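It is worth pausing here to work through a concrete case rather than discussing structure prediction in the abstract. The textbook approach is simple: state the sequence, then state the predicted structure, then interpret. We follow exactly that order.
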Amino acid sequence: MTSLLIIGATGAVGSRTLAAALADERVDRVFALGRRPLPEHPKLDARVVDFDTLDTVPPVDAVVCALGTTRRDAETREAYRRIDHDIVVRVAELAREAGATTCALVSSLGANPASRTFYLRLKGEVEESVRRVGFESVTVVRPSGLVGGERTRKNGLGDRLVEASAVIGPLVPARYRPVHVDRVAAVLLDAVLSPEAGIRVRESETL
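Step two, the predicted structure:
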């Protein structure tokens, strides 16, 4: 049996990862850290925390980092970096100190610390930082555009993208086709429940 820590559990990918983990008989406990409460579940220990002052996490076997924001919500590059890089890396470090040996991280297609694009450079930097934490197993998932999930379905964007991809899919290289959040969640969960030693990168076309 496995205990997991999830951050970003209220987001499109994180919420589906949480649901899958709670339904999986291989998982006996899930800890979710965030700024908003979550519905109760017998296997879930959800904690509302201030990430800026967080200095400890519960002992766990693995951590899933699905936390992220958008430039519009963050408003500044500094705030964007604090959420997408600093908080993610800090939680990864605390989880490792608490006994976690495995980490799965949501990144992005094109992530590269040398990129001229701020977003892709930031994602590349967080990948490098998490790799240096010292986990026995690290899986980086780099999806292209995401479809599905509560947030995208709220305004119908996910549904429109799914419909569009069904029509023009054959014309779009596999690398750039949108990926459903449920598929990303499944890959993340499999990565921490069946870990392989070393660092693995799952590019969008393999999801």
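Step three, interpretation. The CA atoms of residues 33 and 132 lie 22 Å apart. Residues 2-144+181-206 form a domain with the Rossmann fold fold (CATH 3.40.50.720).
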